[in-house]
Design goal:
Elements lengths: L1 E2 L4 H5 L12 E5 L11 E7 L2 E7 L17 H8 L13
Antiparallel strand pairs: 1-2, 2-3, 3-4
């Protein structure tokens, strides 16, 4: 899990009703283990108070979803993140 420096303090102290600032980036790296294929990096970027979801491939290129430009289809990530602890996020893994 990686969080942009400007948003890290808010993320580290995430509680219900807290929110990360616009411009915040949150990324999680797919890990298939030592023998698995290198996977995508899933990225959330907060713009104008709303999260945008995208995926970056192992080559560093943004993986576009048909009809969604460079963002993932809204139904791909947002439904699960709506159940997040605060601001559509789940917080630091325990």
């Amino acid at each position: 899990m990686r969080v942009s420096p400007d948003a890290r303090p808010s993320y580290e102290h995430l509680v219900r009703d807290s929110a990360l600032p616009d411009g915040a980036l949150v990324a999680i790296f797919h890990d298939a283990g030592a023998t698995g294929p290198e996977g995508p990096i899933y990225v959330m970027e907060k713009r104008a108070g709303a999260w945008q979801f995208s995926s970056v491939g192992p080559d560093g290129g943004v993986e576009a979803t048909p009809g969604a430009a460079q963002n993932l289809a809204p139904g791909a990530c947002a439904p699960c993140h709506q159940g997040g602890q605060a601001d559509s996020l789940f917080g630091i893994p325990r």
